[in-house]
Amino acid sequence: MRDGIKDILDKYQISKVIVEEVRPEGGYGVGNTHTHKMLMWLQAAIAFMMHDNFQQINIEYIYPSS
Length: 66
Known about the structure:
Elements: H1 2-11, E1 16-20, H2 33-53, E2 58-62
Parallel strand pairs: 1-2
């Protein structure tokens, strides 16, 4: 998935990426902790890839209810 996002960022002139903030369903301490952990790792992998390769692109984090 990370490499697919990198390909899109290479192909198009994107100035901002909007990422949904990772929050467990029902609030902290409730919900599927495995899924929450995997989403956090994916979010971090994308952020690191963007920092390493696309420093000119801004990342904006929004809450799921936004």
